[in-house]
Design a protein that fits this description.
This protein is mainly α. The protein is built from eleven helices and no strands. The N and C termini lie far apart (50 Å).
Length: 208
């Protein structure tokens, strides 16, 4: 019903000031219906260079910018749903250029990473998260995400490397501590107490 309502608004008032917002709402409604392909088509006008020069209201450049960024975020999710991690990462790079160092960039990186893992290419997920970790503000969170990817892939050495970097940057971060605990558990299960014990201690210190 929501998709139909948005489409009727766009059909009847394609030039109305609220049309871009209605188009964004249509795309979300289509995603909710499991129609990611159609959602990508609906988003296309909001992703063009010209869309950044048209506001949701006359003379509202801030709203224009926000809608453009939100549309890219939604595109990342659509590409994930389509099983196209390559296109999801391409959209993410566009978001990175417009919103560097932001929490929304991290959130979309998680989506792209999940798409690569689902596609059976965790190394691509690791590479993306390593790139994000170059951003000082997002580094601990990006490294935690990379640690989870490595653990899920059974790459204990990569997990050890990333969590060690994260602990160096933010030893008192609880998310880092949680990831360190699970890397320690993996080492313990593998019979490597020498690597497990320092991580157990680091996790306990952060949780204290």
């Amino acid at each position: 019903l929501a998709a139909q309502t948005y489409q009727q608004l766009l059909d009847g008032y394609p030039q109305h000031a609220t049309a871009p917002a209605a188009r964004y709402g249509l795309a979300w409604a289509l995603v909710d219906l499991g129609q990611a392909d159609d959602a990508v088509v609906a988003l296309a006008p909001l992703l063009s260079d010209d869309s950044r020069r048209r506001g949701t209201e006359p003379g509202d450049p801030a709203a224009t910018h926000e809608l453009h960024i939100a549309s890219i975020e939604l595109l990342v999710w659509c590409r994930h749903e389509q099983g196209r991690p390559d296109l999801a990462e391409k959209a993410w790079k566009a978001l990175e250029a417009l919103s560097p160092g932001s929490e929304r960039l991290l959130a979309s990186a998680r989506t792209v990473s999940a798409a690569w893992v689902t596609a059976g290419q965790p190394d691509k997920a690791q590479a993306l998260l390593d790139q994000l970790a170059e951003d000082g503000a997002l580094a601990p969170a990006a490294l935690v995400e990379a640690t989870w990817v490595a653990l899920d892939a059974g790459d204990l050495q990569a997990a050890q490397d990333t969590i060690s970097r994260a602990l160096t940057l933010a030893a008192d971060n609880r998310d880092v501590a949680e990831a360190a605990f699970f890397v320690a558990e993996a080492h313990f299960a593998a019979g490597d107490d020498g690597l497990a014990l320092p991580l157990y201690h680091a996790a306990a210190s952060a949780a204290a």
